[in-house]
Amino acid sequence: MNWIRSRPLTILCSLALGGFFLYACYHKIIDPPDFAKSVNNYKILASRYVNSVAIYMPWLELLSGVALVTGIGRRGAALLSGGLLVMFIAAIAFNLYRGHPTICGCTLTYEESLKFTDEEKFAQMRNVIYRDIGLSLLAAQVFFARCCPARD
Q: What is the value of pTM for the model shown?
């Protein structure tokens, strides 16, 4: 079981998780108004908070992604990315529960999501939850491997 906390696995998980966050933040940073539409479409936040979330969240994702890829502050970045992923899972699950179709805004722009039917959006939401659970496991591995070094 020591391989779970091994350095090569931790580096691989860090690169995969960091790479995902770097990829996901790109379109949000270059087009905040489009991402604000995605955030607003969740119908969870009061409208006065939507713009703040749309502006600051992508930069948190960028910070987390850079830290995971470079290894500087890796454990804190794993904690931050894990927290973001739990928040994303909860928001999408809440919308699935109440029957509100939405696209997460992670990798697709709001404009791209308009071409999907409601059934496709619901399927996409389930897939995003599964993906984010997997990414959360990567974040947990990075966080706990550093916290609990393997014993020989």
A: 0.90
